[in-house]
Amino acid sequence: MVNSNIAILIDRKETLCRKADLILTPSSRSDKPMIAACGLVNAGKSYLLNMLTQHIDDEFFPVADQRETARVKMLETDNYIYVDTPGLDASDSDTGEAMTGIDQADVVLFVHQPQGELEENEKEFLCRLKQSFGEFAEQNIILVLSKTDKEEQEKIDEIADKVQQQCLEFLNFSPRIFKVSGQRFKSGTQQHKDGLIRHSHINDLASHIKIVADASVETRDIRVIQTIDALLERMELTEAELERYRVNVQNKLHESFVPFNRLIDTLRSTIENFENQYKNI
Ligand SMILES: Nc1nc2c(ncn2[C@@H]2O[C@H](COP(=O)(O)OP(=O)(O)O)[C@@H](O)[C@H]2O)c(=O)[nH]1
Ligand SMILES: [Mg+2]
User: Fold this and answer.
1) 46 lines ligand 1 (CB under 6 A)
2) Low-confidence ranges of the chain (pLDDT < 50)
3) Given this model, what pLDDT does residue 37 score?
4) What is the pTM of this model?
5) Pairing of strands 177-179, 73-76
6) How many Cβ atoms sit within 10 Å of the Cβ of residue 104?
7) Is the CB of residue 61 below 6 angstroms from any atom belonging to ligand 1?
8) Closest C-alpha residue for ligand 1 atom 3
9) Cβ distance 51 to 185 under 8 Å?
């Protein structure tokens, strides 16, 4: 039990050091704002990124009904870097991979398909995201309700209200929510139908992303400092916990020697007694 706890603490410390290294390596960051999409498998992340980057027909980010994006995939355009991440309800290691892509992101699009409200693991992930963005969470995390063409408008509005309420109740967080349809945008673009494009709200989302992404460049340094402060604090806590274990183990070792030392003392005085008696003969 103690051993496994120590292993967890050491592992945690190594992860923290790796993160710190990544943040402090200057070449690991581009000057362009990084926009990452995350959310459950099948939420519509890849489809959305294709629309936002004008990859209408060629699907730079592979779209599929099943799990497709197993690793982080990036696209660098003239002004931004777009990042597609694996779905959240995949294996643990992939959730880590999703967070790795997002740790470096300036803007996060949290994509949720409006079949219902936020699920438990979506709330947990949003919570981690919110912590990682600190005071910039509300500004730099954008909630996207995807596939709005699949439901009545009334139902979509109802789900959006519910999601907003969940964010406030569980996360004390009030992000902007965009209700979009990638499919309407695609059809509208292919058939030159402005009404469909407008009704897709993809361009509204794109304009908002541009404002947030451009502003994020100035806040990036503050975020890096805040992330490093948080990492240092967690390292200190981990070190303090390891030190408590060390003292505990040392005390236990000491205690286990007490009866043995007593036995040796008794033995020594018995021998001395014998010796004295022997000398007196
Ligand atoms: N009706 C509709 N389907 C969509 C929309 N966006 C994505 N999809 C479909 O949802 C499925 C999953 O999309 P994908 O982008 O690969 O999801 P990801 O796993 O989050 O990347 C695919 O079958 C897409 O065609 C949309 O706006 N409307
Ligand atoms: Mg995908």
Assistant:
1) yes
2) none
3) 95
4) 0.77
5) unpaired
6) 16
7) no
8) 147
9) yes
- In terms of DSSP bridges, do strands 107-112 and 34-39 run parallel, antiparallel, or are they unpaired? parallel
With tokens 């709330």, the residue in question is 123
Atom of ligand 1 nearest to the CA of 182: 27
pLDDT at position 67: 62
Cα 260 to the center of its chain, rounded Å: 51
DSSP string, 165-180: HHHHHHH-----EEE-
Pairing outcome for strands 107-112 and 81-84 = unpaired
What's residue 247's pLDDT?
Answer: 93
CA torsion, ordered 227, 38, 32, 132, to nearest 10 deg: -10
32 CA from centroid of ligand 1 (Å): 27
Ligand 1 centroid to Cα of residue 179, in Å, is 14
Give the pLDDT of residue 173. Answer: 92
Best CA proximity match to 44, nearest among 121, 132, 143 = 143
Question: What domains can you pick out in the chain, each with its CATH number?
Answer: 30-219 (3.40.50.300)
